[in-house]
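Can you make up a polypeptide sequence alongside its tokenized fold?
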Amino acid sequence: MLKSKMEENNWESILDDDFWKLYESNNSIMPVLKLSYDHLSFELRQCFAYCSLYAKNWRYDKDDLIELWMAQGFLDSQNEKQCLEDVGQQYVCVLLMRSFLQDVEMNEFGEIKYFKIHNLVHDLLQSVASSDYQLYNERRKMVATPMHVSFDCDSNCSLDLLNANRLRTMLGIQRLLEINPSSLLDFKCLRSLNLSESLNIKDLPNSVGKMKHLRYLNLSHCENLTSLPNSVSNLVNLQTLKLMGCYTLRFSIDCVPKLVSLRHLHINNCKAFECGMPIGLEKLNALQSLSDFRVGNDIDKERKYAKLNELKEFNLRHELSIENLNLVREVEEESKDVNLKVKKNLKSLRLDWGRATESRNSDSLQLLEKLCPHPSLKQLTVEDYPGLRFPGWLSSLTNLVDLKLDGCGNCQYLPSLEALVSLKTLCIWNMDDLEYICYNKGCSSLHKTSFFPSLKDMNFSDCENFRGWQREADVNNVIDNEMHRSLPPFPCLSYIIIQDCPNLSSMPTFSLVERLVLKNCSTKPLLDTVKASISGSSATQDSCPSLSKLEYLGFQDMDVEALPEEWMRNLTSLKNLSIGGLSSLVSMFRHMRHLPAELEQVTFQGINNLNPWSVDEGFSTQCQAVQCLHSLQTINILFSENPRTLPDWICDLQSLQFIVIHNCQNLESLPDGLQRLVNLQSLQLNGDLLLLQRCERGRGSEWPKISHIPSIWINGYQI
């Protein structure tokens, strides 16, 4: 409150105020909170009072709340160039700075997404909001003259109690057990109406067009909503229309361009727009956010759809998904004026060609070149792009935080990406023809941490021919080992998933990884990282041994024998180990003897050779010698074949608290030693009905072995 007060007398006036006496006499913080509230501007006070329409501990969606404020006319811009949405953002920041908001959640771009309000602050809101704001629940009776009302519980409350000429906001309608949409039309002065998740609404009556003051209409996730009347086009003051998740909704989308005040159009998964967008969208001069733009198929001459160039004038913000790009016929004509490169407020862009692509490779490349976004873009997703390569602008998005490429099956190589200095997440999926990512040594030689300096998460999946990073000049004659030695290490990569990439061999080392998942891929990247730690070539500033920060390791369908036996010796932080797809665990246990960490959880998946579990004494002795299992708390076993018995060595793991075993339908008995596991809290078995009978409480033959376990689940039943 005093942060902006620079004069001494302002501070003294607060110090001498009588409210301190109220604080001391009542021993309550409320007078202090009230003082902070009173020093807010009038605009901020009414915006904050609006938050009283939600229950305590509510998770406020910042953008949705700003749209509601805007609908009530609470946002006033002193600058013609400043958007009302930016004013709302400033209001949220001021309230946060004044400590009225808490538990802030940020999105992947570092922007406020959600927040909460402390219960004491919520009590303050209830006291200052007066009767104009009514949160109806079982503890509060409905007053007759609120301007803004929200329903917080399932009830049969009658809307007849409300003053139709005074009401401006109606939220939480889905909580009314019985509601007739026609009854809502009596409230012709409404500015905000939220009908989201109302499963009993199938359509809206034609008279909805008479609600001409309406500025905010939320019909999202009304799964049974099938139609909207053409009279919706009369809602010329509507600013926000939300139709997300309306899977059965069909209506004449040609009415949308007539909503000339529309600023936010959310149509994710809305059936009505699946074939394309209405012609005339460029008339929506105020449009700020458009969740989806679907290119239409003009084969049907009786129905025409909007072209890409209708996006030309929109100063879009937040997210945009452009789908069905394979249906673009005249690339030059339809895309030359899209102007994505000037939309600086757009944070996330998704470009999807569709799986049943019809585009030629040359046309696809030309189209993608035309769809170059502004350099401020934070997130880019490209799906099912059929081109052979990507345009050069991909390497110039230096503010990009998240890059996902999925199903671009014809692409053979990617341009250099290490210049993306802000990139935190890189995902490449389902790119069968991809062979390499170009490496520009000149770009990464400026300083040691210039090679993907921000990259945290990396996922390569289903890229059968992908070999890794290579210098463009050496594509045809490079030797993998030489290429690998020329690559700098990843300086801060913490989460890696590599699955079904059997040829990936040339990859930077990842000494600081914390979570590592390897499935059906070469062990060479891991082996190179292990060797780098031995040679010291990947030493970090704090001299942290390679892989010493690894906490989770997933290992499935891998050639364990290709790794040196002592490769796990630096895994001092490992807590969770998942192993699968091995014919025998004997070799893996031989490696685990060198593991210095004390594991907390182990998962065995797809065990094929069951003999060691029951008859191989050497294996049992070896298992007992593995020190890393002595502190084990959880063990999960997913058998690929149905065993008749469980391994006795499990009963030697005295720290076990949870045992989960799947695919044991032929299990005849449980180990006698289970009684020794005094710390065991839960046992879950997926067996047959006979097993359930044998373990029946107090009566089954196996019950004495497990009677000490607090929680027992067999075949999904608790006994």
Summary: The chain is about 20% helix and 20% strand. The longest strand covers residues 346-352. The CA atoms of residues 395 and 419 lie 6 Å apart. Residues 84-97 form the longest helix (14 residues).
